[in-house]
Amino acid sequence: MIKKSVYEHYKALKNKEYSSLELTNEYLKEIGKKDEELGAYITVTSDIARSAAEEFDKGKCRKTILSGIPMNIKDNICTKGVKTTCGSRMLEDFIPPYDAFVVEKLKSEGAVLLGKTNMDEFAMGSTCENSAFKITKNPVDSSRVPGGSSGGGAAAVAKNEAAYALGSETGGSVRQPASFCGLVGMKPTYGSVSRYGLVAYASSLDQIGPITKTVADNAIVMNAIVGHDKRDSTSVLRKYDDFTVGIKKGVKGLKIGLPKEFFDGAISDDVKSAVMNAAKEYEKMGAELIDVSFPSLNLAPSTYYTITCAEASSNLARYDGIRFGHRAEKYNSIDELYKKSRGEGFGQEVKKRIMAGTMVLSAGYHNEYYKKALTIKSKITGDFKKLFGECQIILAPVSPTVAYKIGGEKEPLRDYFGDIYTVSVNLAGVPAISIPCGTGEDGMPVGMQLIGPHFSESLLYRAAFAYENMGKAVDIYDFSI
Amino acid sequence: MISAYEMVIGLEVHVELKTESKIFCSCPTKFGAEPNTQVCPVCMGLPGTLPVLNEKVVELAVRAGLATKCNIAFFSKQDRKNYFYPDLPKAYQISQFDKPLCENGYLDIETSDGKKRIGITRIHIEEDAGKLIHHSEKGTMIDYNRSGVPLIEIVSEPDISSADEAKAYVQKLRTLMLYSGVSDCKMNEGSLRCDVNLSVRKKGETLLGVRTEMKNLNSFQFIGKAIEYEFKRQVEALENGEKIIQETRRFDESTGKTYSMRTKESFADYRFFAEPDLGSIELSKEYIQKIKDLLPTLPDERKKKYTEKYSLTPSDADTITSDPAIAEYFESVAEKTSFPKIVANMLQSEIMAMTENGEFICDIAPEHFAALADMAGNNIINSATAKKLIKRMWENDIDPIATVNIEGLRQENDESIIIEWVKKAVAENPKSVVDYRKGKKTAAKAIIGKAMANSCGKANPLIVQQLVERELEKFDKLC
């Protein structure tokens, strides 16, 4: 039962094959059995889940595809009355008095919250190893990382501990763990999903996105969370597509660009060949492959880290031990209270980025680093725009390698350059979807991503769906409720 | 030696905007509520919250800009000013750095040295911080009710060169803000606060000296005292061969002196950068014009009317126009009486004293005030009676004509009656009489006072004075 996709659960619940409570109890049982080893959850909300399931079974809540289906939420998305730790000692006991926009939306659809998932502290990292609480294992090979920072949610979905997950991205934190765990992850257009209630890492790049087993599931969850929110000034007011509409149309005539820079350099052979094979499949389905160039790719990581660290140094300054979060036990002055509370509450990676960010914003460095990074950010955005004049979407790998070994080479630059294929998408604010495209070394999943212009999610879902369902009958899908 | 120096002053004035709700959330802004009862996750800076700009803030700031003849920017943006302090929940203040809403304005002041135009560099919007409350037993507590209350900061050019000019500038600014409905400008509630930047130089020099900053001066008196003291201090330091250090100094209200607040981190690096949670502020020509059209008559025009039509002195006209509520009230009374000058005097000496530092509210019906002014002007009552009556009318809006008639408060001008009161006063105060005879002419004042008291304040004071002097002269001759 728990292996099913969101869409399959929807059908089963509709046909009364099982109740939401039965389904919820199955997931909770699985979490109880496996999560100690997997380490996907920071908090399990059994009671909340069961009562939401009972509500659904009583027929009390609005019926959408997602109603009554158990899911989890990354621990940096605020949930009223439920601990939201951001994977940090700093917020170990923080219970938000309000729900994030996306949580409100899902609750109103009768979603069943199983719990809050593990993550790199404050979303800084791409392995989940930076969590202050636990290490999450890769669901395929427990000696490897699940990716990050939304690694807990991805691992849980892959190991059938939830039907879907909400993650968040600043530089690939949804797409990369989806790719490492063999799942589908969407980074929506900046401004299409409200950030209200998402604990900020880098405000100008942060975006919430779904992690699911299938492309159709992903489109269904996106339908629920997308939309304008007046509490987020960066939320874009427009008419959003129904992402399931036209998803089955196929890719005939679609112009797909292959930027050569994404296939050069440190990419592993099996990732490269898996993605190239996928490209050939697209060609077989009638798409047109175009060789394109994305010259600013190599500038993306340093630009990304300059901007994210700068914003993070400011966003994370509110954790000062005064109103909420960790406060040092002993201090003799206000300065000491700050220093000790922050020194004890934050982990190494977070401190590193706060310090780097503080530096790049400082007088004397501001122009040389931060301002320059903003200039390159515009250049990258411009490069994408130019590319989308030549092709409709871009096909590229998500990560240069498959999932890393836990505790592997303690080489910080590995993680930084591991982000090279994902961060440019966030800098440009465009959407991208990560989908599995075979396996590589030791049978580990390989992911590819499809990148499109702003607000082209429908097209991305259509292209991703076509690949995922090659040679399968797609008539089984009926999204009308 | 002090006369060889001149001071150069620039002012930064913070004005709380008169909005119902805070700048980035919907919490109320009422002053004086129980601590932490006007807060929400947004103005407490809880994780995951985001600011949404209150459009009324932009409208009021544009009004302030127009009232001070500024250019209003079609495009401006908000920035983060980063620093740690417990009253600042997010550890950054959302302000405006390089693209403020209003720039390049001015206002005109008038002091005993004449008229002068003071430049206004910029006006930008920002959020206020909370308030620390130091308690002797419980330690330091924080009230976040003020956190997120909208402010504008008005920065002047260094055009001010005396304490009087500084006071006149703040007074004029306050008046303009009141007229344009931007703020209630209550200095005692902190809705108008003033930072003074002051440097000195030898007269004739063109280069600026090193300046010091005195923060949060919250009354005209303190602004004046702080400037006088700091000017003297800097001149003395320079004369003694010392160097002035650029620093923030605290003005101590009890000693009237300024003290260094310098710490190791005196040169704060605020690491300004564009607020990523908010978009830019883009205004259309039509929007700005609409606000311009709705601005009320500004004080300079009213002053002209008061001096020409009502024959007020320029200084009286300044005082009356300083607050639109006072000006409105004055006009409503002045048009009903033949003695507007008496109204202006009584407003200033009696009513404004009772409403000082507060909001001007006068419940006396304009017809009643006008009737009182007419009686005083026509010598039906004397000035002492008029003063007593206006105080009673302030407490309780009684009809002055009826009161004068019922209580018999009409001024007594009949010498044959007044002489009795005078004689009684002379008889009962032999010591004053003796003093007078010894040549202490001021002793007559005591007798006049007694005679007035004998009349229950009704006697015409001029006649009393004449008769007292006449009576005392008689004694003189007797000796």
Order of helices and strands of chain A: HHEHEHEHEHEEHEHEHHHHEHHEEH
Report the CATH C-level class of the domain at 6-248 and 457-468 in chain A. Alpha Beta
- Largest beta-sheet details of chain A: 11 strands, mixed
Q: Quaternary arrangement of the chains shown?
A: heterodimer
Largest interface, with counts of residues having CB < 8 Å to the other chain, equals: A-B, 43 and 28 residues
Number of helices of chain B: 15
Total beta strands of chain B: 16
Instruction: State the strand order across the main sheet of chain B.
Output: 2-6-7-10-1-11-12-13-14
In percent terms, what proportion of residues of chain A is strand? 5-15%
Give the tally of structural domains of chain B. 3
Overall mean pLDDT score of chain A?
Answer: 95
Shape designation of chain B:
globular
Distance between the termini of chain B: 56 Å
| Structural class assignment of chain A | alpha/beta
> Roughly how many Å is the radius of gyration of chain A?
21 Å
Label the overall shape of chain A: globular
CATH architecture descriptor text of the domain at 6-248 and 457-468 in chain A: Alpha-Beta Complex
Helix share of residues of chain A? 25-40%
Q: Going across the major beta sheet of chain A, what is the strand order?
A: 1-3-2-4-6-5-10-11-9-7-8
